Amino acid sequence: MGNSALKAHLETAQKTGVFQLTGKGLTEFPEDLQKLTSNLRTIDLSNNKIEFLPPLIGKFSFLKSLALNNNKLTALPEELCKLKKLETLHLNGNHLRQLPAAFGQLSALKTLSLSGNQLRTVPTQLCGLRHLDVVDLSRNQIQNVPDTVGELQTIELNLNQNQISQISVQISHCPRLKVLRLEENCLELSMLPQSILSDSQISLLAVEGNLFEIKKLRELEGYDKYMERFTATKKKFA
């Protein structure tokens, strides 16, 4: 892509606050964007070949949405955690193994998508985020869900297509968790905490494709309580 094309994109971005350049084979974050640190509200660089995000990302203090789906990121800079207005972060289809230590400082974050990365656990940094609505950790290499998950504030947690064989009973203490997706994992029925059914806020539990038949779930104690929540929620959205 020529400089003139990039210049045209930058001029548009200056007016609109949106910089979108997807599927152009970019190998690095366009440095020229730093001229627009106070303009940009949205950056979308999905479907490129970007290998790392430069520290200057921390200067986009008004950024609300950042999308870098399907790139080649292996790590994220700590500077990313300075984005106090960031509400949406899409990083699906990269090679991320962990999140920066200060990730919990992204205090405005509502939507986080990390599907198709190389995470091995549910990042504890997420527990500090108070405004989460949706966390997508599907298609990673997560094997267990630790006790810290009880502090997670999200409404929906997607853990489909991982290798989960153990889940902490603390998951039933998540204060806002309504939707829990655990499809296509390695769960035995005995490893599914019954308190998810009997004693949680969860009103949609998706567990197809594990090591038990779904009809066995209906025999568990607390299933009727879960169905009450499920039905009440369904009526609300109907």
Automatic annotation (TrEMBL):
CC per GO annotation: cytoplasm
Source organism of the structure: Bucco capensis
SMART domains attached to this UniProt entry: LRR_BAC, LRR_TYP
InterPro entries: Leu-rich_rpt, Leu-rich_rpt_typical-subtyp, LRR_dom_sf, LRR_domain-containing
A Pfam family reported for this protein in Swiss-Prot or TrEMBL: LRR_8
Protein name: Leucine-rich repeat-containing protein 57
PROSITE patterns for the chain: LRR
Keyword set, alphabetical order: Leucine-rich repeat, Repeat
